[in-house]
């Protein structure tokens, strides 16, 4: 959800195109999984983003209009921190 919110706010400038690819790939994979597990239900995973026409700078995430999404950053950051800690176990 955090990545979804960031991409919908900022768009896909050149430096975020790889994140857009990751979001798109994961969304398609989750939709496929939902279809396999519950074929009679419509997938709950969004398939498209409502992107701005012109990509914005990341500083727009500091604007007051985006404040209610900031709570999504904490679990995402903690997950990234745990992931990196796990990766370091395998490299040492």
The structural class is mainly alpha
- Give the end-to-end Cα distance, rounded to a whole number of Å: 32 Å
Give a count of the beta strands, DSSP E runs of length 2 or more. Answer: 0
Flag low-confidence runs: none
Provide a quick synopsis of the model.
This protein has helices spanning 2-10, 17-37, 73-91. The chain has 92 residues and is mostly helical.
Could you explain how this protein is built, in words?
This protein has one domain. It is globular. 3% of the residues are buried. Helix content is 53%, strand content 0%. It is built from 3 helices and no strands.
SSE order and pairing:
Elements: H1 2-10, H2 17-37, H3 73-91
Question: Any key phrases for this structure?
Answer:
single chain; 92 residues; mainly alpha; 3 helices; 53% helix; globular
């Amino acid at each position: 959800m955090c990545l979804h919110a960031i991409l919908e706010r900022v768009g896909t400038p050149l430096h975020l195109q790889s994140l857009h690819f990751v979001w798109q790939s994961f969304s398609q994979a989750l939709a496929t999984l939902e279809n396999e597990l519950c074929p009679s239900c419509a997938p709950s995973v969004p398939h498209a983003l409502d992107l701005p026409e012109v990509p914005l700078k990341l500083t727009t995430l500091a604007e007051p209009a985006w404040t209610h999404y900031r709570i999504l950053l904490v679990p995402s950051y903690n997950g990234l921190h745990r992931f990196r800690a796990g990766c370091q176990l395998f490299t040492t």
